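USER:
I wish I could look at a protein chain and see how it folds. I am handing you a single protein, as its sequence and its fold in token form. As I understand it, each token names a local backbone shape. I hope you can help me see how the letters and the tokens relate. The protein I mean follows directly.
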Amino acid sequence: VCVWTGPALFVLHLNLTIMINNHDRQDGYLHSFHTSQGRRKLGDHATYACVQGYKKPIGITQATCTREGWMPEELCEAGEVVCSAPPAVEDADVIRSKTEYQNGESIQYFCPRFYVMEGGPFKTCRNGRWTGHLRCIRPCSVSPEEMNQHNILFARDVQKTFIEHGGYVTFKCKGGKLPDGLLEMHQQCVEGVIDLPTCA
């Protein structure tokens, strides 16, 4: 009888086969193991599958019952897991994206002008998955129409089209107007939003 020498196995009896699932084998990384029902003898074969990220050694298609147990001893080996095209990141761009990346390869992302990058700029292919956090944070924009509605101007007489995330800007009232006191005249841009004070 061919004896399995690994850790405890879970056996499910079917009509024609015995399925042995052994996820805990340190040397095999097996997903499933199938043999013919009944007494196994030397020379019998078994079919099996490896877990994701592992593959059968070159030239090996099945396991064979020997006096030492099922052989080869290393039924599975680490496979070359690739990643598909990198995921899209809102408002970010990449240069020369490919359709397939090898394990360990990285891709660099870029944010548009005035956007602030959080994390990044790289994502890396690790065992079939992309790792690395990044995002592009929008700037704030203040139009002349909005400033007219609030009766305010930029304090330094500099026209700012965009204000980067985390940046501050100071406003002043138009001539003859006074702050209504509801908001400070010094405001911060937070993720594309800035509160505008009002003068009356």
